[in-house]
Amino acid sequence: MEPIIHIENVHKYFGRVHALRGVSLDVQKGEVVVIIGPSGSGKSTLLRCINRLEEFDKGRIVVDGIPLDSAENINAVRTEVGMVFQQFNLFPHLSVLENITLAQKIVRKRSDSEAVKIAMDLLEKVGIPEKAHAYPAQLSGGQQQRVAIARALAMNPKIMLFDEPTSALDPEMIQEVLDVMLQLAREGMTMVVVSHEMGFSRNAADRVIFMDGGVIIEEGPPSVIFSNPTQERTKLFLSKVL
Ligand code: ADP
Ligand code: MG
Prior knowledge:
Blueprint lengths: L4 E10 L2 E11 L4 E5 L6 H8 L7 E6 L2 E2 L3 H8 L2 E4 L11 H11 L5 H14 L15 H13 L5 E5 L7 H16 L3 E5 L3 H7 L2 E6 L2 E6 L1 H6 L4 H10 L1
The chain binds adenosine-5'-diphosphate and magnesium ion.
């Protein structure tokens, strides 16, 4: 089967920093891939290359059959890929509902009533329909992150990218966000998730990828990577985070 994400020998430089040093990765439709690794290992850069928030210097990325090689194609890919960041990045001056309807109306050209209907269904799904008319500052971090997920889902993405979505949250709010992600995974969404939440990985990940120094060091099912990694660098990293 053709992978929905194909990454082939991708290199990325920031000046003299060689952030990605030949990364290759295929993700199948419906697969949930979790990326772990130390700070600075290139996890965010790799994720950002997938929807071309970051340009890469060498290699090839093809998303759902579309190569990231022209402005037109990059725009096409971006409409298929949703992204959720560590910092929720909601528009502070817009209500929750407006946050979730804005891009639907502009990019998807949906009518106001259609966009509102979709937004309300998604707020129901992430468990906070009563917050539709609140502003981001009136919500907890966990609620804001659930709005950010709803906003991304409103665009009907084929792929969802999550970059440490629970790292900025107080501990008691982490699970409510992971539960939404877990549900999404069970519904068959293709997901690439940078996260060190082992519980989530064990429950949701088909594959865990360990990155260090801009390369993939090893990968495998969570049961193997967390309990029986073969590489010393993976063992060392896990001994620090587990
Ligand atoms: P991770 O997400 O695994 O912590 P990153 O992908 O953010 O790692 O960073 C990989 C490397 O690239 C690091 O050395 C980091 O300092 C560098 N880097 C990332 N973004 C930039 C940037 N915008 N400008 C310069 N260097 C960057
Ligand atoms: Mg990062």
